[in-house]
# Entry
Amino acid sequence: MEIRNVIQVVPAAPDDASGVSDFAAVIADGLAAKFGVQASVLHTVSTSDGPAGIAPGACRRSRPGIQQAILEFNPDETAVLLHFEPYGYQKRGVPLWVPGLVGGLRRAGFRVGTFLHELFAAGQPWQSSFWLGPLQARISRNVAAGSNFAVTSIGEFGQILRRWLPGHQIDHLPIPSCIGEPGDPVGVADKQPIAIVFGRAGMRRRLYQDFGDQLGECARTLGIGKIVDVGDPIDIPLAGSVPIEPTGRLPAADVKQLARQAQYGAIAYSHARLGKSSVFGTFAAFGCVPLVFGQPGAA
# Structure
């Protein structure tokens, strides 16, 4: 069986700004460029601009809509990659129908892989996530068990999945750079003493609001001359005496050039979940020393 098409199921609308959508786009570009495989993205929210080969508005977060769109393809030439996170398919994070979707596609002859971006939520007893977490875990386990293989970006998730499903193919793949990789990386010693901050507005805002003092202290200690902030405009508090230069949104090529030049990259993110961050993946790809702020008062 020669795979000529890969359909990625993404729990979002085409115009939703999300890390999962960005990751799916990176996969699609890579499959096309390196293997000549046509990789369509099937968004689970209807759109008037459907990807090639898939009818616009073909599905609305339901098993029949998604399955019908995929069954238009030849299973001997087509594989499916399901991007799964419980809250992406149901507002309370309990999409009971997704394991049935995976099973239906397998029975129709498709090879199905699942990328599990989340497994289950946790919370306080007065929050729904506290009570629904075990059911979410069961759904995630069943989705992974029904797939030909499962992948996750978090090492801890991989350990949980292997404990749930001994002997099943479970792979660990951190999220790569969202802007590609440099063909000729620059060594840290040859870079400029600047730090780059980029990504979604909420993540950047949290960095400055929750960790501004620590960021400024790190910058002074490391001799960072300025911080370059890339992305949609936000109110940026001062990070000590270190100047912050906002650029607004930039083309990927310009962000690549900045990443090549910057010795450091700063991000507010859980240390245990850095494998999920395409921004951290960019820092790793371009050789930027990461300054990771995971909780107030720590870096």
